[in-house]
Amino acid sequence: MVQIMAVTVNPPPAPANRVSTRRALARALPPLAVGTLIALTPVPQSLTANAWRYFALFAAVITGIITEPISPAVLGLAGVALAAVSGLVRASPADATNWALSGFANSTVWLIFAAYMFAMGYSETGLGKRIALHLIRAMGTRTLGLGYAVTLADLVIAPFTPSVTARSGGIIYPIISNIPVLYGSRPEDGTERKMGAYLLYTALAGSTITSSMFITALAPNALAIALIAKATNVTIPWLDWFKGFAPVGITLLALMPLLVYKIYPPEIKEAPEAPRWAREQLRQMGETSRKEFTFLVLVTVALALWIGAAQYVDPAMVAIAIVVLMVMFRVIPWNAMIGNAQAWNVLVWFATLVTLAGGLAETKFVDWIAESIAPILSGLGFYVTITGLVGAFFFLHYFFASITAHTSALLPVFLGIAIKIPIVPPLVWALLLAYTLGLIGILTPYASGQNAVYFGCGYISRRDFWVLGVILGIVFFGVYMAIVLPWFAFLKI
Is the pTM for the entire model greater than 0.90? Predict the structure, then answer.
């Protein structure tokens, strides 16, 4: 008698490309659903059918940027092309083409592209690492001093690195993550609160403040400048942006490391090993190289021209000239620059977003939203109206996983509403909204690109990340509103 044994055969795993396709399709459903739902909704009164259909397309693109079924840059190109072919913004093919390509002629888009090349210079030459190590050596004898050192290191590099992910996650984090282990602070053995949790969260919080201080410290700042120019016909120079936010930024940078030290204290208060470690790292790096020195001179010249010559030469042209000099002086080879996929991707992405956001104004959709909502807000009083509108723009970032998506989706609409409320000039409204773009990065683990690096390091628990985000988000917003309005009055903006 032959016994037949049952054999369980497990099906082979699905191929990786099939799983990837399923995920892409799942991520494509929300933008398609959002766009279709809006398009099928009856056109509101006082709005043209083309404007409503264009809003449906815009909403689908922004939702796609959040879910990312494909690259955001490709989504932007697809949205611009579809709007142009469909004649949703301009009727004639020639005019529609000119509109579709207008973002690539925007000087602010090219400024941010050139600044990405500056970020390459910091990384490739080692200058960013050297600056951070010198600050740790000088200020790192106590844990609180280390908190201020990493914050200052970010501040020094920030004016030339529009990718806060590259600056904080790519330059600052790899350096400071070596320090906690010197004191036996490791996430894998439950000792993260000895030092690592405080130090790494302070670095993250500092990066959000410096991101608001300079146009060139956060890529969406440049997008905001372009959107503001389209809405108000006012271009905000680099120095004017810095002057407007400086008191807020300096106050927050001075308070934040101490505040985090008090509410999220490290167990180890003294850090005598950190300066010795930094000194050894600097010894291994050797003397300042020719490339480092050359790059330092070039970025100093760029900063001087941005501050002192904005009325004579466009900041974007300054940045592009410096990029050319970086190649000529062999700081970074041209082949490395053209191989910087992130910079070229941002160029396409931002150029299309500027165009798409501008289409909301050109189709009069923003005017319709503003005329519908502004009367409700204008009767609430000066401070309540400003705090309510700016606060809504700030805390709505809980629903966004990208500051760029937040900027392109909400800034044109909020700016359109604000301008219709004449309690302050349009430029004041524009700055009040735009200055928050860096600060909102503190709110959640997904609020900005660098957050994922710090959240994934294991030193900061999920609960702590959310609780600290709420506390610092409220503190940042409170300090911002308390200082910025009196400062604007002093500047007579």
Answer: no
